[in-house]
Amino acid sequence: MVSDLNTPKVHSAKLVIASVASLLLLAALDQTIVSTALPTIVADLGGLSQLSWVVTAYILASTVASPIYGKLGDLYGRRNIVYLSVSIFLLGSTLCGVAQTMPFLIFARAVQGIGGGGLFVLALAVVGDVIEPRDRGKVQGVFAAIFSISSVIGPLVGGIFVQSFSWHWIFFINVPIGVAALVAFAISFPGSTTRTKRKIDWLGAISLSFALSMLTLFASLGAHGGSWVSAWGALLLGMTVVSTAVFIWAEGRAQEPILPLSLFKINVFWVCNVISFISGVCMLGAITYFPLYLQLAQGTSPTMSGLQLIPLTIGIVTTSTLAGIYMGKTGRYTVLAKFGMVLLALGGIATTLLTKDTSVLRFSVTILLIGLGMGFIFPILSTAVQNAVPKSQLGTATAAPILFRQIGGSLAVSAFGAIFVSRMGTAMTSSGIDMGPISISELGPQSMAIIPQDMRGVVGDAVVFALHPSYWIITCLAIIGIGFAFKLHEIPLSNRKVAKSE
């Protein structure tokens, strides 16, 4: 068992893993649990143009927070930082549960995301603290399975709560689960008694946060009546470039940089981050809008749309388990990245062929391919990176793939939301059909139920038309990802060595 400042003698490694797995489940669940509830939330609170921000606010906040938590964990030990992260997450969950307006819900989701970003990073970093390199693949495989299960449990639980109770309960349920997991973690993972005064890279943290925020705002312009090719678009893009330059300047001079630039000289580090970005676009970009396709284009209920995503989870659970076993036995991982990206590309191609009349079997095969690809990819990213960097930078390096995956997901949800809203409006306007008192911003399962049958077909065609560009983007990025998978170098997991600069 590994031991350092962040790894005091634990009472039970299994209990530690179980507790952080529960926390990871909560963080992952809240990226997807709102997906099937989104049409209902929008119909209740109003504002289709703000739909993507219910998801984006959480992803963006967790993206901004993740590298900060990773560095704080390295500097001060992970136990107290876990407490801070969970407390903020549960506060945000409670605020989401009591939300009565869309702007307040978006704000509460941001608070929740600030806590959730820490759960992702700290959970994976703790694995590096208590599990040896060769065995981390198995645990990361379990965590990948948890993440994938959440992608289906989330929409399913969200659908059940919407139909049987209220969408507010999809957030309240986090509180008892989070408290129980935190108690188990506190018992099994004692804090370090060593305390060292460190200087935090606040300039790097602030400039990175600002750059990511401006980039996400730019990506979401089209969903809020704006345009990417406009004065506002140019301003946001310019602010992104300037703040990114400030971040790079700050990291080159900081005593304890949030994201050390020297790590990007390591092939495994930067290639895994690129693959993580692509997987974030593909995973979160697809999952967020699959329920809209199922509910609005095919007319399924929120609960059934959640159930129809089960093949995605089956795929991820299957291949993530196999990937963990393979890495444990061989210490290798590059072949998994190659297989994963190829399957993901095939799944992306299949999504471009979806129509409002696509059969359940064909849809299931499509998302199964995506799941199989993701299952191969997820376990290797953190495992490979942790094996390639110095132990003193474990938390920081662990945060990086999560950061890039979250950036990809945040940009995808925002940009795809902008594309969807714009093309949906164009399609409905060109159809020339009067929907009466129901506006596009109020479309949801309830409103679809009272729309005449012939009009439902028009709406279904419009939804498919609005989503297709996003599916092509996913496909193209996955194909590009295949090339990066072949560029990934391999450092056998049996050895705990620092990678050479390449």
Structural summary, described in words:
The protein has 502 residues and is mainly α. The protein has two domains: 13-200 and 256-487, Growth Hormone, Chain: A, CATH 1.20.1250.20; 201-255. It is 75% helix and 0% strand. It contains 18 helices and no strands. Helix 1 (13-32) packs across helix 6 (133-164) and helix 16 packs antiparallel against helix 18 (453-487). The relative contact order is 0.16. Residues 1-11 and 495-502 have low confidence and may be disordered.
Concise structural overview:
By secondary structure, the chain is an all-alpha fold. 75% of the residues lie in helices and 0% in strands. It folds into two domains: 13-200 and 256-487, Up-down Bundle (Growth Hormone, Chain: A), CATH 1.20.1250; 201-255.
Q: Keywords, please?
A:
mainly alpha, Growth Hormone, Chain: A, 2 domains, 18 helices, 75% helix, disordered N terminus, disordered C terminus
- Elements, N to C (H/E): HHHHHHHHHHHHHHHHHH
Largest sheet: none
Mean pLDDT: 76
Radius of gyration, whole Å: 22 Å
What is the global morphology? Answer: globular
Strand tally is 0
**Which regions contain 5 or more consecutive residues with pLDDT less than 50?**
1-11, 495-502
What portion of the residues fall into strands of 2 or more residues?
under 5%
CATH top level assignment of the largest domain: Mainly Alpha
Query: In angstroms, what separates the terminal alpha carbons?
Result: 30 Å
Structural class: mainly alpha
Oligomeric grouping of the chains: single chain
CATH architecture of the largest domain: Up-down Bundle
Helix content: over 70%
Number of domains: 2
CATH-assigned fold name of the largest domain = Growth Hormone, Chain: A
Number of helical elements: 18
